[in-house]
Design brief:
By secondary structure, the protein is mostly helical. Helices cover 60% and strands 5% of the residues. It has helices at 9-12, 27-46, 54-59, 66-77, 82-93, 108-121, 127-134, 137-170, 174-223, 228-238, 258-275, 278-284, 290-324, 339-347, 352-388, 394-421, 425-449, 455-474, 496-514, 532-540, 572-578, and strands at 552-556, 567-570, 585-590, 600-604, 615-618, 632-637. The strands form 2 sheets. The chain has a 4-stranded antiparallel β-sheet, with helices on one face. The radius of gyration is 25 Å and the shape is globular.
Length: 639
Amino acid sequence: MQGFLFESAVQWFPFAADQIKTLDIATIDKVLVIGYFLAIFGFGSYFGKYIRSTSDFFFSGRKFSWWVIAFSMIATLVGSYSFIKYSAAGYKYGLSSSMSYLNDWFFMPLWMFGWLPIIYFTRMTSIPEYFERRFDTKTRIAALVFIAIYLIGYIGINFYTLGIALKALLGWDIFLAAIAVAVVTAIYVTSGGQTAVIMTDLLQGFLLLLAGLMIFVLGLNFLGHGDLLAGIQNFWAGLPETKRYGLTHFNEPHKFSFIGVFWQDAFASTFAMYFFNQGILMRFLSLKSVHEGRKALLFSLIFLFPLAVMAVGNAGWLGAAMDGLGMIPESYSKDPKFIFVTVTHILCKPGIFGLVMAALLAALMSTADTLINATSAIAVNDIIRPYVLKNRSDKFYLNCARIASIVAALLGLLLVPLFIQFKSIYLAHATFVAAVTPPLAVSILMGFLWKRYTAAAAFWTLIGGAIAVIISIIYPQIITPFAHGVAPTGNFKYMRALYGLVASGLIGVIVTFLTTPSKTDEEIEGLTIGSLRKAEQTFKGEVPLNKTPGGKVRAMLKVAEEGDEPSISLHPDDLEVLKAKPGDLIYLADARWWYGGLRAIHATVKDDKGTKGEVYLPVRLIESNSLIVARDVVIEKIM
């Protein structure tokens, strides 16, 4: 979803620093924008009290419910310039700008029933870690370099884009605005880690959808002169016929053809987003179970993603209809890259416009906070812990994680002056992404689908695939056999994804058959799709898997005598409802559903009082960290 038109994003947001003019907006709108920053700062920092370990900092204790992750993920996927980009595409191409949403479906069964169980059950902490456990150290380092540069560069681009937005809204200097954003984001991420990221993105996800859909309702009301039904009719009448279709032609226009978006988005950007984006990986590893991850993604695909596409793109559709009906005043710009601001300025009164601009900033900050936390995880789990400072306490690594978050924000911030100098920085960044995405996609796909795939093949898929893509940038004519008839204008920006996938795949297959595996089948058990049951068994431990579905029970967390640890005692009848046996993993959460797992913990059933007909569950909990004594909890069996 986030990937379409990525390589030509410079067309939608190409401003040089001296081209940006401060908008004439009402004081109340400025107050709303500043108030939004302060609110997010306080809200995110609050969750620092839930952080006690690196598991909490990076994965929130793996305890959240599906709906929390689904809504927070929307804020992360709606990227740094999605409103600008999708509105511009909607204005130029009409309803077909939404066709990139369809591409999210292609890999989802493989992700839900293959990749997600592998990374969850093997307790993976990062994508580079998978490369070492599946292949070897040098392949891990190669993947680490690609991913680290991508993450830090992307943080800088988000800060730069936020600086541009604040200059336009408040008149602030771009770099000073970027510093303000970096400080706010770094503090709450450093304090609350992944929990702060999830909870702030949950709030921002609601704001994004609310503001985006509100624009559509206001637009229809404007088109109908106060009559919503008439507005729907006028919207359709105002759209040129060529902009009423959900799909473009197969291979034209060359900048936005169906086949181009398919290869660029589905087989490059979407695959990258779900299979090796460290931030998305950590978001799903924060769930209480694999089943919850599947529910979160399915709900997103069916319900939230269509709403998000409508929320970020409808200003472009409205602009096209308003233009067709002659309802855009001459004083307003009809340039696609400005159409979002044009439409919202026309439709929104003071106060409402501030809310919409806060939503735009929410899209920016929710991507930046995810990237900062992801970069911190890479630094600690792939550099500091395994190579630089080994065998230290978890508290030591937690402090390292917080320092790494600050450093990640600082490095991104230091790139902002560089980005300010270049009008085409998005194109430069996109070129790098085009070089690293196909090799990483192929190496991961072959790695967990093909047991025979060797370490040498994975390494040369990464290196050789990147070289092959770079060659295609220098000599674009090499892409012609893969172009499906798409015109060569623009150097086949979209078709380069197919070329890169084929080139990387050929390298992987050829090297695999020329080399032998460096690890035995036993060493890679649980890391390939054919050994998922082994991964699940390893996750649970030595006790046999118990896959019998069970129900839920309520109980109260209590202290038997002063000084005792909080504990729960379950009757055998409760175990029958849960379908739980000694050794099974269970999940205990505050009975108030709206917490969404914020106050929750995992435990193991232990038959310590079997002679009394009860099962005693010692749970190490303190009130400030998780569950509250004398409160009801809901208990369910995880597996």
